[in-house]
């Protein structure tokens, strides 16, 4: 798949702009704070209906306006589709080929993107929350059912925590309603667990293969899912539900005392091992960055494996953060396989490594000029 063109209206510092793109490599070139990352972000928002930079959608709207609109024309194996994302004070509205979608889960997945930004290099060393977000965003792109169960889980989790607090503060003991919430949480959470483990099995296969290549065959990468109990991909959803429900009931007294749900997918984590050594704790910075790069490149192959075509890759000023070997590994993959959008302040570190001529867009204070125009 590839993004043929995009049109922005009142999006951050872009009042009105329409751009056509190359099917291969597109470079947004400019100094910092000129709008190149805003442009890259708009593609991400068009695909996933949310920003990777802020949770406040109002920040995406030009300050003097009351709405922002992104329209994209996407070419896929089975034909072209038009996607529309409208953001306003009333919320989000999405359209596919002009037809409004009632649920975001019906919209997400029609344009698949992989974002690689400098902060992703800390995916391995960073917080568990970042790794859970990584799982949620990537699985959600290829599995609408996961989004459904994740959304349900988050809603019931919020209700359960609120009720735990209410019971704890008022000393009420309506355990029947708590039991209902606990069962609903276990039901939705068991599906979240199931889909995460299925996804990680496939991700590990691709990531290990790529990691071995980057390390010239010296290192093997393994991924482990850290939860409240040891779980395996061979277990069924029903087994997960029984295990989770038992854990919730075991922790009920503690949860009532602390006003929060102490176990579940919302507290789980990923562990990464290089040659059987925990790379988060004992790995070098180079091993941690190689692991992060392997995960991102593995996502590309996994999505292609799942849906039959490559996603679009968004690189937000990330090449300058990688050493020469990792830059070469990344560029070798993207130049031959998929459409890529790359932001950078300079082309000097790319000129000797690229084998194809990119489409270059020069950006200055929200004004975009294509090289050669």
Explain this structure to me?
The chain is 43% helix and 24% strand. The chain is α/β, with parallel strands linked by helices and 373 residues long. It folds into 2 domains: 1-112 and 311-373, Rossmann fold (3-Layer(aba) Sandwich), CATH 3.40.50; 146-287, RecF/RecN/SMC, N-terminal domain (Glutathione S-transferase Yfyf (Class Pi), Chain A, domain 2), CATH 1.20.1050.90. The strands form 3 sheets. It has a 6-stranded antiparallel beta sheet, with helices on one face. The protein has a 6-stranded mixed beta sheet with strand order 8-12-13-3-14-15, sandwiched between helices. The RecF protein is involved in DNA metabolism; it is required for DNA replication and normal SOS inducibility. RecF binds preferentially to single-stranded, linear DNA. It also seems to bind ATP. InterPro entries: DNA-binding_RecF, DNA-binding_RecF_CS, P-loop_NTPase, RecF/RecN/SMC_N, RecF_2. ATP binds at residues 30-37.
Topology:
Blueprint: E1 2-11, E2 14-20, E3 25-29, H1 36-48, E4 67-76, E5 79-88, E6 91-96, E7 99-100, H2 104-107, E8 113-116, H3 128-142, H4 144-170, H5 175-214, E9 221-226, H6 237-250, H7 252-258, E10 269-274, E11 277-278, H8 279-282, H9 285-307, E12 312-316, H10 324-337, E13 340-344, E14 359-364, E15 367-370
Parallel strand pairs: 3-13, 3-14, 8-12, 12-13
Antiparallel strand pairs: 1-2, 1-4, 4-5, 5-6, 6-7, 9-10, 10-11, 14-15
Helix pairs in contact: 3-4, 4-5, 4-7, 5-6, 5-9
**Helicity level:** 40-55%
Distance between the termini: 26 Å
Element pattern in H and E: EEEHEEEEHEHHHEHHEEHHEHEEE
| Relative strand content | 15-25%
Poorly predicted parts: none
Computed structural class: alpha/beta
- How many E strands? 15
Number of domains: 2
User: Could you please say which CATH topology of the largest domain applies here?
Assistant: Rossmann fold
CATH uppermost class of the largest domain: Alpha Beta
How are strands sequenced across the largest beta sheet?
Answer: 2-1-4-5-6-7
Average pLDDT taken over every residue: 92
The CATH superfamily of the largest domain is known as P-loop containing nucleotide triphosphate hydrolases
Gyration radius, rounded: 22 Å
Profile the largest sheet.
6 strands, antiparallel
CATH architectural type of the largest domain: 3-Layer(aba) Sandwich
Number of helices: 10
GO molecular function: ATP binding; single-stranded DNA binding
InterPro entries: DNA-binding_RecF, DNA-binding_RecF_CS, P-loop_NTPase, RecF/RecN/SMC_N, RecF_2
Protein name: DNA replication and repair protein RecF
Subcellular location: Cytoplasm
């Amino acid at each position: 798949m590839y993004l043929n063109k995009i049109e922005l209206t009142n999006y951050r510092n872009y009042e009105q702009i329409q751009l056509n793109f190359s099917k291969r490599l597109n470079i947004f070139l400019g100094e910092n704070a000129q709008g190149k990352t805003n442009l890259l972000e708009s593609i991400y928002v068009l695909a996933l209906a949310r920003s990777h930079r802020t949770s406040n959608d109002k920040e995406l709207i030009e300050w003097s306006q009351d709405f922002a609109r992104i329209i994209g024309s996407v070419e896929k194996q089975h034909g072209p589709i038009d996607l529309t994302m409208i953001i306003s004070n009333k919320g989000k509205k999405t359209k596919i080929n002009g037809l409004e979608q009632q649920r975001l889960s019906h919209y997400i997945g029609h344009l698949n993107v992989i974002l690689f930004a400098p902060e992703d290099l800390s995916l391995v060393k960073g917080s568990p929350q970042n790794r859970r977000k990584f799982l949620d965003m990537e699985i959600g792109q290829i599995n609408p059912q996961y989004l459904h169960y994740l959304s349900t889980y988050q809603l019931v989790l919020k209700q359960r925590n609120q009720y735990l607090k209410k019971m704890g503060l008022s000393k009420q003991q309506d355990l029947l309603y708590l039991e209902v919430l606990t069962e609903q949480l276990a039901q939705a959470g068991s599906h979240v667990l199931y889909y995460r483990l299925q996804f990680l099995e496939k991700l590990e296969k691709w990531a290990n293969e790529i990691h071995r290549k980057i390390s010239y065959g010296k290192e093997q990468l393994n991924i482990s899912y850290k939860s409240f109990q040891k779980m395996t991909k061979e277990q069924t959803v029903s087994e997960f539900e029984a295990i989770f429900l038992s854990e919730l009931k075991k922790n009920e007294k503690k949860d009532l005392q602390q006003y929060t749900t102490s176990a579940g997918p919302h507290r789980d984590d990923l562990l990464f091992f290089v040659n059987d050594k925990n790379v988060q704790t004992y790995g070098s910075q180079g091993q941690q960055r190689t692991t992060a790069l392997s995960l991102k490149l593995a996502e590309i192959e996994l999505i292609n494996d799942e849906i039959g075509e490559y996603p679009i890759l968004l690189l937000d000023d990330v090449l300058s953060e990688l050493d020469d070997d990792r830059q070469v590994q990344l560029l070798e993959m993207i130049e031959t396989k998929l459409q890529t959008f790359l932001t950078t302040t300079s082309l000097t570190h790319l000129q000797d490594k690229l084998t194809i001529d990119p489409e270059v867009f020069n950006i200055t204070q929200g004004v975009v000029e294509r090289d050669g125009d």
